[in-house]
Every structure is written in C-alpha cells, then in structure tokens.
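Before surveying the methods themselves, it helps to consider a single example record, giving the amino acid sequence and backbone structure tokens:
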Amino acid sequence: MPEVNVEINGRKYRMACEEGQQQHLLGLADRFNAQVEGLKGSVGEIGDGRLTVMAGIAVLDELAEAERRIAALEGHVAELTRAGEALSAEIERIEGRFAATLDEAAARIETAASGIDESAAQIPQG
C-alpha cells in the first residue's frame, strides 16, 4: 500500500492510501491544511489539538451544507422529472385526440368525395 507524506499545521504525517489515490490524498491534505491555516490566522495560536478539532468541525460543517444542497437539488430534479413525465403524458393525450380528429375529418372528406362522385355519375353526359 503506497504511503505519502502530508503536512498539516507545519507538521509532517506519513499516511497510507490505496494505489492511485496518492495525489487525491495530497490534495485533501492541502485543503485541510488551508482550513487549519485560515483558522490559525483568525483565532491565533490556540494549541494544535484544539485548532485541528476546530478545522475538522469547520470542514464537516461545509460537508453538511453541501449535503443539504445536494438533497435540495435532488428534490428539484425529482420534481422536474415528474413535471416532464406529466407533460409527456399530456402530449400523448393531445396527439391521440388530434389523430382521432384527423381520422374523423378524413372519413368525412371521403364520404363527401363519394357523394360528389355519385352525383357526377348521375349527371347526363351530353
């Protein structure tokens, strides 16, 4: 299992990860370190343990907000899907009514044409 060295708050840590995940782990460590450094800049020196806990909680707060937004978006997608399905069903109903009306009109035209043909056949040729 590969290992990478990450730096958090000026300290190096050796961490194991799955093959191919080295760059991902390094990127996560950089993001977490940026969170720690940002907190350190705003609250000052408060001790490594407390600083790390605060950074972890801040990251989890961001995760919780992202999860809430994802759930809301999933709700919107479901709502739009239902609306799309309803529109599709309405289009099918309209197409069915249109086809029936068109068939009815074609039958009337055919009846009228037959009547004209019969009338024309009864006119003496002269």
In short: The radius of gyration is 37 Å. The chain has a mean pLDDT of 93. The chain is about 75% helix and 10% strand.
